Amino acid sequence: MKLPIIKHLTGFIEENDEDFVVETIETLEALTEIPSLKDEELDVIGELISNMYGALEVDKMIKEGSSKKAALNDFMKRVLGSIDK
Prior knowledge:
Blueprint: H1 3-15, H2 18-31, H3 39-63, H4 68-84
Helix pairs in contact: 1-2, 1-3, 2-3, 3-4
């Protein structure tokens, strides 16, 4: 996951609607079922999906009252904490 991408996507969600991101995730997930995709291509699609789910989670935290900066920092701490375990 990359914080600049999540931050950018969070801004996109604020300006538009989260439904665009949800539908994009569904489309990318459908693409992963293509049997001829190479591992590298699947990795890129997976990274995009992860960043989009991250942006949705940050957006949810903002809607619950966190500032954008706090939500991004808290989310990344959770991600890094889960990697360390």
